[in-house]
Amino acid sequence: MQKLILVLIVVFGSFPLTTAQTISSPSDFLGYEIGTQFSRNHQVIDYFKTVEKQVPNQVKLETYGKTNERRGLYLAYISSEENIKNLETIRENNLKNIGLLDGESSADDIAIVWLSYNVHGNEASSSEAAMLTLFKLLTEKQEWLKNTVVIIDPSMNPDGRDRYINWYNETASQPYDIDRQASEHNEPWPGGRPNHYLFDLNRDWVWASQVETQQRLEVYNKWMPHVHVDFHEQGINEPYYFAPAAEPFHEVITDWQRDFQTEIGKNHAKYFDAEGWLFFTRERFDLFYPSYGDTYPTFMGAMGMTYEQGGHGMAGLGIFNDEGHVLTLVERLTHHTTSGLSTVEMASKNAKQLNTEFAKFFDNSNLKYKSYVLKGNEDKLNSLKTLLNKHHITFENATASKVSGMNYATGKQGSLNIDSRALVVHANQPKGKMVKALFEPNAKLSDSLTYDITAWSLPYAYGLEAMASTTKIPSEELLSKKELQTLTDTYGYVSKWNSMDDAQFLAALLKHNFKVRFTEKPFTSNNNKFERGSLIITKGDNKHIKNFLETLNTIAQEQAQHLTQINSGFSQTTPDIGSPDIKLVNNQKVAVLSGEGTSSLSYGEVWHFFEQQLHYPLTSINTDDFGSINLDKYHVLILPNGNYRKVFTEDNMTKLKDWVRAGGKVIAIDGALRSFAGKDNFSLNYKKQEDDVKKKDNLTAYADREREYSNNLITGAIFNAKVDNTHPMAFGYDDNYFTLKLGSTAYSLLDSGYNVAYLNNTKVYSGFAGQNALKSLDQTLVFGEEHMGNGSFIYMVDNTLFRSFWENGKLFLVNSIFMVNNNAYEL
Ligand SMILES: [Zn+2]
After folding, report:
1. Which stretches of 112-173 are DSSP H helices?
2. Is the pTM of this model over 0.85?
3. Three-class SS of residue 672?
4. Distance CA 33, CA 29 (A)
5. Is residue 487 within 8 Å of 493, Cβ to Cβ?
6. Ligand 1 center to residue 381 CA distance, Å?
7. 117 CA distance to ligand 1 centroid (A)?
8. How far is the CA of 161 from the centre of ligand 1 (A)?
9. Percent above pLDDT 90 for the chain
10. What is the pLDDT of residues 132-169, one digit of tens each?
């Protein structure tokens, strides 16, 4: 039978087919009943291509980019023949309706619904559902397409999907085994959920650190759909979840968005009730953190929703769950198809109202803060501008010389002197509610129980001075870009050291074999004062570089790096360039642990940081191999967040310590610190919560258990740490630093070692921190260094690479690699 179907496809595929009856069903196309096998990513895309060929008047498929592993990213536009013909006009009309494009919008009241599938690669039922949804829209729901453009992203994370499916296909038995202990239900590290760099793409919408997100946002912001659904899966014992979402809702969410979610949910319920399928609403999945596939669209005016089917990477084609039910892929994809179609139905039936209410969302004249003003390091301002550009958020330069308002540095009212370099972001612009969500100092939390971090305010994340002003600050369009400098022949060249741009410049020099020095003390030369960490490139050090000046010029220009020329090694104020306080940067060989025991997210952050941000080589070593590898090949070993109990056996711990004593450097991030806290030879120790706090927990009523527990939590909150910026780990920083704390585990200050950054207060600048958790936080470590023999253990209690968005923390890691305990030696 399968062969016959394939033959028919081949035969009929060569004729133009235009009627609904001749559209291949997914099962016909795939050669198996949909849901009885997992379809590889290319099969999903090929099905969409086939349907486009069959009904070109109603389906338009476009590629919007590709992944790290070079798989294509696609969007399908599905609508009536008339609408597909006028697609560009419909898109422009929509933008005109909300002020993102000049001109009068001719009200055509067409609903734009965007359905996103499989952002988590191992939540694999959804791309199957995408195929069936496409088929059903065209064959059964033509009526809705008359006034609705449906945009389908069938596979947002193809690298993750194929990682899962390739593993499943090579692992599963035939027929599939419903015993959950079977290997086909237990994915190996890192699992198929994340993308190539092991990022969670459903936490990346705002930060856009990943290519999938970056390319998607370009199209998303060109379209600005009215409804956006992100299809997911949850644990195998959960039923189905759909809107309305749980509290907390961010304040930018309008009453209409709340109400219409409920209407959509009720429509789904009608279909689910008819089949007797279980579901829940208004619990667990909130709308607060802005970087999700539901909140991002919501803060951009859409009905942004998450739908969750029970299943996930564990479910395979079928699994026996705790409720005595065999959950199958067929069932999972059927539910997702039903909720998807019900969403399109609701959009179509309410198209006019969707357009009207969508337009109202973009009136931002009544927001409390009218302007956010930021000043500081030019590189940091530039990287903030790059982020704003990704969301088509506009900004200008200040024309005022002083602003007053809420001062981010103090958390109080105050004023700030500025000049024309200060950046002004106005709230009264079409993307104003997103501006508010990203900039405001402290988002209002209607409920402390949330699914994610509660603080992300951009001025803190980018290390900029900032004011939030309730009056509009005068501004004008931005000044043109800085001019590139041409270096001339002299003794040496000095670069500042404050930002990731400076770090990239150093990495580029090392890659080209330059010898670079850095200063551990401030010095003055040619009437310029250079701070700690400044890089020095002398002609004398670099005689081995052919065309030294030309090469340096090229690198500096490529990186848009400004260098100050010095004409002598004799400084006006010491140290001189030849001083022992000015050291050679070693060309560090860096390794990182990956695999079982490490957090795949944290490992991925390190991997992505080296490859895509710093552009510096990194060797990844599997934890399974730790016992047998030769550590002497590396200067630095990074331990991402993780649980290393099984990795650091007694033998392996001895091996690690011996390597450090001989001069090696360990950089331990977040949970990796647990491997050393309270252990022999280490001065790192936990700071425990008080006993009376614990006792109180025992009196908690059962119904209050979750809420009471949240008193012990910190769910991503911003604190101000004291910094010893004379320590090389803090070169380039001020004497205080806003840190994002992701959990309540606290470590005492080091007795022997350097407390490079630590909390000497427990003021919460933004986000949620439970009362109990706060009690033990005063006088605790944020970053520190402990010597052992010739080497060091460097502790990063707070993970500065978390989701790659805390821009201002990244230099601490770079300093740890290149400047801390800098034993320049050849391996
Ligand atoms: Zn998910």
Report:
1. 125-140, 142-145, 158-171
2. yes
3. helix
4. 9
5. yes
6. 33
7. 10
8. 12
9. 87
10. 999 999 999 999 999 999 999 999 999 999 999 999 99
